[in-house]
## 1
Amino acid sequence: MRLKIYHRTVYEYANAVINNNNEVRLSPKLTPYQQVETNFISVLPATRLTRYTDLNFNRVHHFNIPQPHQQLTIDSRCTVKTKRPFEIDSLPYGYAHIEVKKCSQHDSCHTYLQDSSFVEKTPHIWREALDIQADSTDVFQTCYALMDFIYSDFTYASGATQVTTHASEVIKGRIGVCQDFAHAMTAYCRSLGIPARYVSGYFFDSTLDQKLRGSEASHAWVEVYLGQHGWVGLDPTNRKVVDENYVVLAYGRDYRDVAPVIGTYFGRSGSQLTIHVKVESLETNTAGVS
Amino acid sequence: MFSHTSRKTFPHYKCLHEHYANYNVASLSNKQRLIENTFLEEGITFTVYGDNQGTERIFPFDLIPRIIPQKEWQLIEEGLTQRLIALNLFLHDIYHEGQIIKDQVIPESVVKTAAHYRPEMQGVKVSRDIYIQICGTDLIRDDAGNYLCLEDNARCPSGVSYLLENREAMKRAFPNLYSQYRVKPVDNYPDLLLKTLQHLSPRQGHGPVCVLLTPGAYNSAYFEHTFLARKMGIEIVEGRDLIVLDAYVYMRTTKGLEQVDVIYRRLDDDFLDPLCFREDSMLGVSGLMEAYMKGNVALANAVGTGVADDKVIYAYVPEIIKYYLDQEPILQNVPTYLAWREKDRSYILSHLDSLVVKSANESGGYGMLMGPCATKKELQNFAKKIENEPRNFIAQPVISLSRHPTICEDLSIEGRHVDLRPFVLYGDSIEIISGGLTRVALNKDSLIVNSSQGGGSKDTWVLND
């Protein structure tokens, strides 16, 4: 599927600010399941853009605006070609809980088993996760059960949580948005010893009634490590195994690692943030006869 | 149409090749004559300045369409989008902080001495921060089949009406052939253009009133102005139809004054406002710039975009793209020598007979010198001009444009040089009309495709895979 994404972020400052230093994680990742055709990031006021790769192998753009300004606009436009990782009849079963212990020593997994800024393992979370796991011995089955639990037992509502809400608070309050759901799921998985990482990106709602959550915004979900199957994406907000409708921007330990725009400036605090995201499908099934 | 190396027909041209084999030369020329008559009757014409005949001419039309497969087109689209974003950031930058000058990527003198640089625009906030809403970049193909960018027409590019009319004519002339290909439609252009204009409107909570400002019936592109205004369903106005009161622009209508929000102006900056620019302009509107700078009316394209059009700035576009987008340019430039750089200038002067010399701020094929076919006297004249005003000249190697089969005057079918002008719109999103104006140099071996210099056009088909 070819998807076209337009993501605009506008900060309006009450007073002019200076020395605005920012990191932007808005370039889709190159993965076996997604191919980036184009990707343009433009910043106003216009300034030089540079780029590097961070610890989690995300592509990061960096810029600095020294002169006074009252508004900062970051536009990202990209076209991505995606592929479905798993067919519905060949889901990644077959990775047993006994095996998962071994992977904690792997470079790529160790980080995603530890506590991080917004995700911590507590006895309470561990107990809940054990209850949800019940008698499952298959890691994918357990993860699916965790996702199902969050989807059905948590309330999806904006405003109840902030951008800095921790996983433990979400699990206690049973309410949140996609970011919180993803944090909660990460916490459950890690407490059971399953490596889990937080993913930010977009998704395209291909359903006719447009009932899925989080399509016209930045979205977040979780990837869990399933041995021979690699990292598999699960979206607790919509109870879906990640398919060709999803576009991955970045992954990390939690939101802190992948925030789309993060930065500092000199000036009075307080800014108004407006975000506009549009995801369109470029599939053309109709012939171009007019 | 044919491969350069194997002399075989490209797969996407096969159907066309077979189809044309059914016609003899006489029936083809008959079709062509019919089309040209229709063009003349419908008034699809342009005027040539400084021509004694002084008559309106039709834009010569060639019956053999150019076909671009989806894959090639995608590359063009990406490249143009990248270029347009970067040029807009560049314009925003030089009319505000000038970071790119402070970082010494482009010398300040080059920017500030561009003939179309408008100091008046310094610090002015343009609607939606978009400077170039409508861009018609000229592309050519070199020997290796790569698309190169020849110039960015960032002021008021014309030609889109011919593109639309050519498509109508082709559909009428070859209905069967047309339906055998899955050609992407182009007729959504007026809608897209209108949306792009409406997006600019500064007035909230009121349906945007857009108008097209034309210099008048004697302008070479007047047909196009009427055509676009009609297709978009907006008023076409001349300067005297507009009036500025208290820094708002109004249109005189039979029902009284009506406030105007967006002006699609097909008038150069110089003539827009006699108070601000040329005081002898009879075409503009007094006070328009004041209303514009206060943000009460939007202009498309913005004032001062001509800097991006300057051929010396053109040479810097790859660096501009790298600076603002941190990317490599997708569409390459034609190698360019800048006469104001001493090293380049001595090279130009010693190789004048093998280079194309262009003046930095002219368009339409005026003010240029084709080294290989110039007389000694012309060469000497140009050498003198270059030495006198080095800032105003650039030189490029002669690129052998790609050739495309074309029906010639003696009714034979021969290869003629072509270029391509796609049209890009930058509004809410960046839209590129699927196709473009393919211009063809009708004279044998000529490399000049400008309509004012004896060029014709072809329909351009972009295929849906």
Note: Chain A has a mean pLDDT of 91.
## 2
Amino acid sequence: MISHWLDEQIQTQKEIFSLFGSVGLRVFRKEAWRFHEIIEGIVKIGIGSIPMIAISTSFAGLVITNEIAWHMDHVLHTVEMIPGFTAQAILRELGIAIPALIFVGKVGASVTAEVGTMKVTEQIDALKLLGIDPIDYLVFPNFIASIISSACMVLIASAVTLTCAIFVAVNRYHFGIGEYLNALKNFVGMKDFFCALTKGVVFGAVIPVISCAYGFRCKGGAEGVGTATTNSVVTSTIAVITLDFILTYAFTSIF
Amino acid sequence: MSEILKIITRFIHQSVVEVGSVLLFVFKVIKTAATTRGNLRPIVQQISYVSFRSLPTVAFAGIFVGAIMVLQFNVILVQYNAEVFLGGLNTSAVVREIGPLIISFLLAGKIGAYTAAELGTMRVTEQIDAIECLGTNPIQYLIVPRFFGIVISSLILLLLGVMISVVGSMFVAKVLCGINPLQFLNAIPRFTNYWTLAGSSFKSMVYGTIVASVACHRGYTASGGARGVGKAVTLSAVFINLYIVIADYFTTDIVSTLIELGHHWMNGGEN
Amino acid sequence: MIRFENVTKSFGPKTILKNVSFEVSTGEILFILGKSGMGKSVTLKHIVGVMKPDSGKIYVDGKDVTSMSDLQLESVRSTCGMVFQHPALLDSLNVYQNVSFGLRTPQFNHAMKRTLNEEEIKTRVLEKLSLVNLGPEILERMPPEISYGMQKRVSLARTLAPGPSYLLFDEPTTGLDPITTNAVNDLIFELSRKLKVTSVVVSHDMACALKIADRILVLDQAGILAIGTVSEIKRSSEALIQDFLSETLALLPPEERAK
């Protein structure tokens, strides 16, 4: 039973990587750049996620400040370092990872469900018979749209989280906005901006490929769509966490 | 301007309807569980099923999340020459905040989505109607075990996940940051104690309840074939994450207060 | 006896049933015919209280099901067996567990005044399976492993197992081969004649209706178009019924058509 499960896992990973390869190659093929579909994808994936991401990261901002304040108060008996600490935590990690995980839930699930439904209702076979490459038509536009959306989303989310963190710090812990801006200047630089953007692009590239790979594997009606969606969300979450670790390690070693 | 107003009112209306229907559903589930007998066995079965299924994922994520926190905290703490606090800060962050949050995200993806899909499939293929017509209450037969199974599993997974994460972090701190494991362990009690763990358990139960209620509700009320099941799964994933982050804000304050009270009580009111 | 009194049901702006009133007497076979989306399945779901009407009353055995609580409905449901459009077998249970599902409920035990032991349950399951031409070799199989036609027959056996006095069929023969279709129709007929089971059958199949129905009800745009015995329906002048009839007659061999 375990070996069967392992086979299945290896097969899935193979499919994900090969799909990643074929999507990657299409970047250099002119006919894959269907701008109409890409714009549609950005509207659906990116703009559609903004309210969700904004609401959830604003709450995250509030929580982060409260938590850090509690820790500072508890150990150092001072809350002076809140600005520096929160700014770094948000811009380096939390302002990126939390929205990314929510992005996984939203985009991963909806892309897999959509592609999976097309698969089980034989729409993908129909596309092939019409001479349209499903990767060109379904995966590539989502891939590009997701990269763009995810990169923008990381920036928006960090900004929202930070704004809310400042809001709490000013109102509850009586900091001046100036102190915060000073802390930002001292601790945060272009390299953090670059790291955040890189993470956003990497997550954005990985999520739609995993989601589509699971969608294509989908079989057996409504139940198949559900199972595929579940697996895709979990795999994407794990992939995001793992890549986050690798990138964090790489950046802390380089800079 | 009136357009925007219209969108906002519609959004508020939809949110109220959505939250209200979930709450009514949860109320019905709890009432059913309280008024019927023979629920214990299926609930225990669900708990073991959910916990075993999710444990590998939770363990994997726990180690990596712990590792990320170690790296990030180390960078910040080095600036203040406060590396001694790494173990404490890392453990405290995992126990109080990141642990419950990440575990419930994973639970939402793995079990929440699966439950919504399973129940949705049963709904659209008329299996739920069939159960009802055969004289069995589908809420008792299908929902009660899943609901309580998820809630209690989230607690079990939290305790196991936190343990794995702390051990993993200790290892990573040694290998990547050169921090002595003993030093790491010594810093832990400065920030965390049993009250922290109790608070964290409370949080994780709240998130577990969110996962269970939204997933069961979405699945149970799905309609419209394969597309409908897909929609139920997607929407449950989206709403669960949103609710959890919102609940996080409120529970954090509650838990902080509770922990303070706990300290106070333990120290006989000295501090 | 089942009685509908002025039942109205709408989904959003669309009225599916409008002032529908009819009666099914004990032991009778009533076919409900009509085009898709005319509220045939909705009518069935009202009888067991899975759906509630917007207005009007529905009586089963003289008891009003529209005003019942879920708990009271359970006792009504235990006298009604419903056969769904889909096989609706529980995926996580095997054939034996599916068919015996209705024999383990508290309502059933209550109606029997005792709990059946495993031996009795098995006998009953095998007996019902043989009614739908299935043997004991199928007991341990899981629903996805057997063919669609078999699933539908298992589903029928599951409905028959608790011994309902009303049978509600939602397109029982859709997706079945002609031989099984005939077997199912004969079974409905036999149950009604031998055991005085009352059957309400929702169908598209005029040929079956003409063969075994006592009475036929034709639903159209939000209301009853016609109700009557087979010969009354045949004489009807409504265009839709004539269309249905001529379609059906065209399929029959010439000597049958003459009847």
Note: The interface with chain C takes residues 121-122, 125-127, 129-137 of chain B (CB under 8 Å).
